[in-house]
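Example for tutorial group B:
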């Protein structure tokens, strides 16, 4: 006894084939939703200003090679939000993201940074700060 399910396009699909197709789609999309959920969790942690939690969530993603996570983690290390401030670590994550072709990281890496620092006599001077 074969039951048929009607679709919007008036195409009949056998129930067994339809179930198999749904299962296949679910299996193929599962890894994509897992990454999306993690970034959503990071966004939610940042929204409530729980930067330590956001950094905890970003580290495994960055280590797995997610360029956006590497870029965002570099910003956390550069500013010292949620993690200890470390210029070396920030530059390392930024370079990894730039090597993968992440445009924002490439832009930040190639843009000259200038900071105002007080000189020996208290006068402000421009200092080049490579990132």
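The residue assignment follows.
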């Amino acid at each position: 006894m074969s039951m048929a399910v009607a679709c919007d396009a008036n195409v009949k699909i056998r129930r067994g084939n339809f179930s198999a197709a749904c299962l296949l789609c679910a299996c193929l999309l599962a890894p994509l939703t897992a990454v999306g959920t993690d970034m959503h969790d990071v966004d939610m942690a940042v929204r409530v200003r729980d930067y330590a939690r956001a950094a905890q969530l970003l580290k495994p993603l960055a280590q797995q090679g997610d360029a956006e996570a590497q870029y965002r983690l570099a910003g956390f290390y550069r500013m010292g939000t949620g993690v200890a401030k470390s210029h070396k670590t920030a530059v390392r994550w930024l370079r990894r993201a730039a090597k993968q072709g992440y445009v924002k990281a490439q832009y930040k890496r190639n843009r000259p940074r200038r900071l105002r620092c007080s000189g020996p006599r208290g006068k402000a001077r421009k200092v080049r700060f490579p990132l």
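The radius of gyration is 24 Å. Compare this with the pattern of hydrophobic and polar residues in the output above.
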